[in-house]
Amino acid sequence: MVSYNNGLNTTKDEDYQRRENIMSNEDTIAKLVSFYGNSSIVPSADQWKKAFECKAGQTICMVNFIKLREQADYPDNENVSGMEAMMRYYEISHQLVEGVGGEFVASGLFGGILMGDDEDWDAIGIVRYPDISAFIKVFLDPTYQECHRHRVAATLRHRMAILIEG
How far is CA 116 from the centre of its chain? Predict the structure, then answer.
């Protein structure tokens, strides 16, 4: 029997799968960055890479801090508030989140910072996903990609933190 030592204590099959996942992740990240771009309200390529470091099958929550525009910024100058544009986004996105086994755990208006530097946000939302692949599936979904324009029109600033459950 020939031993296989790649320095990672994995079998040939596991090592092959790891390399395949890395290639697949790089392709997926390229697709995500190509579609969503590099604005401050979407993950950068490096941030997508960081998200892919979450273990498969590990439940995660995305904690969202959102600052809305007073007036939505649609390319056709549609006259709606940032809140109305965000609600358009939510009407579609929550169905897609639920479709991958996710759920909106909590959402509401920002009540202020209790500890640390004060920041100004309008809303906070916490969304639970069964794992990172479910989260990515939402972003790759053509229906989500279409409704994303409402989030772009609505949002002045957006911060998203990954909470790893367990």
Answer: 25
